[in-house]
Amino acid sequence: MLQPVRRQSVLLCVVLFALLAVSMSPGDAPTLWKIYNNAINETYSKHAIVEPDGTTFVSSGDIDMEWLRDSSAVLLAYIDQARTKPEIRSMLRGAIERQGRYIEIDPYANAFTADYHVGERKFEVDSLLYPIRLAYEYWRVTGDTSAFTPAMRKTYALVLRVLRDEQHHATRSHYRSASLLGGDDGMPFGYTGMIWTGFRPSDDPAQFPYNIPQNMMAVVELEHLSAIEKQVYHDERLAEEAWGLSVQVHDAIERYGIVFVPHYGRIYAYEVDGLGHANLMDDANVPSLLSAPYIGYLDVHDSIYQATRRFVLSPNDPYYYQGKDAAGIGSAHTPRGYVWPLSLIVEALTSIDPAEKARVLRYLANSDTGSHVLHESFDPNDPAHFTRADFAWPNAMFTELSMPQSGA
Predict the structure, then answer these.
(1) What is the pTM of this model?
(2) What is the assigned CATH class of domain 55-308?
(3) Backbone angles phi, psi at 246, to 5 degrees
(4) Average pLDDT, rounded, for the chain
(5) CA-based, 20 to 30 A from 399: which of 83, 132, 134, 154?
């Protein structure tokens, strides 16, 4: 198990300054610092394990498996430290290599065991995208190309092939699952140019197979993959293919993924089927509609995003819940009425309103039950009722929230 990293007091200063700047209750600052204090070392010292083969296995917390999505998301919080800390670089390179091996075993699986067996085979587009995001950000920040091995080059070609196959799911895909809504073949759909998915980022079956947030993330990560292919591997053909697929998916989102809703105007749907049906909601798991600026799809000031934001942060979103201690987006994955700290963090990360950021920080402080960790979800009327005592993802993202933001 890896040793704890040195705590960075500058991040504490950022959090406390933000609290003081918006005149929050002074009692919230110590609670948030304690949450941060636990979070900054949690993944590195508790969940990231260097295996005998030299790769890094990253569990999601209290489930001893590695999700491609979750492991990438929690490690993103350590990218900046990789500039100066060789041990962090080694951890990240080991994680990138292991993820590549997992994808080669089965690109349709979303979770794996430490001994390289498939843990869950739910095809979620974001499970192939998050490893690209992690590797790209590692390269962008450090300039280190050593993670881009010949084996990873094969992995990226496989990812691109699967995404293209799932863009043409009806004619090219062999993926089937008894867990899909509608049976092994899933729900009916029409071709749109977006990438078909069986499951949401929550691991729950999709109501309609074109998940807009996952496709938004695909637009961004395919651009990143194009840059890797062009600048690292010098493969112009795959670079052009990745870029072309990104453009096609973007155009399809803007054509099929936007609906008009009275009192809100034009907003992004959460899911569509290409047959005229749309599911209007958001889910706490990232990628989400709320996270669109965070994942890099659009600018936080975009008018359609702001309209979408108003919708998903309102009672019109069936998964938006309010209580005396918090209000925010939950998920079908957890009990009805439970708010996810993950969605609260994303709300703060994408907010342009200091008062909203302060309110969300207060909700996060209210969710603390004395353990000073963020849970998967909690009852906003009684935070002592929660799911998953050990869930690495929101804690890692809380450290991102505590860092100076260059975007939203």
Answers:
(1) 0.93
(2) mainly alpha
(3) -60, -45
(4) 91
(5) 132
